[in-house]
Amino acid sequence: MLEFAPRIQLRLLDEIERLSRRRAPIAEINRLVGAAAARMSLPKPSYEQVRVLVHLARRFRRASPPGVSTVAAAVVFRTMPPAAIADRIFAAPAHRLRDRAPRAS
User: Fold this and answer.
1) pLDDT digits 0-9 by tens, 47-90
2) How remote is the C-alpha of 26 from its chain's centroid?
3) pTM of the model
4) How many other C-beta atoms are found inside a 10 Å radius of the C-beta of residue 6?
5) Chain centre distance of CA 60
6) Do 40 and 80 contact (CB within 8 A), yes or no?
7) Which of these, 45, 57, 50, lies nearest to 17 by C-alpha position?
8) How far apart are the first and last CA of the chain?
């Protein structure tokens, strides 16, 4: 018998975020998350929860600032000012699912 959870544990949120980096369909990610939940002895999240969280994780990744190495390369090729490296280093960290998604208390 399957068991479904209304809230998702942090370990599964991290797994969804990791899997969302792949260009796999959400249905495949849902199957992999279900297998991971079984391995961790956690309730399997619903397809709808996984779908929403994959979209959210992908949106966070698209909105995240470029990496320090990318900014450094732009400074070397003089497409950005040198101060851009310091701006990037001291910028706020990128959003993660574990920081934003509803979860068990």
Assistant:
1) 999 999 999 999 998 888 888 999 999 999 999 999 999 999 99
2) 14
3) 0.75
4) 10
5) 7
6) no
7) 57
8) 25
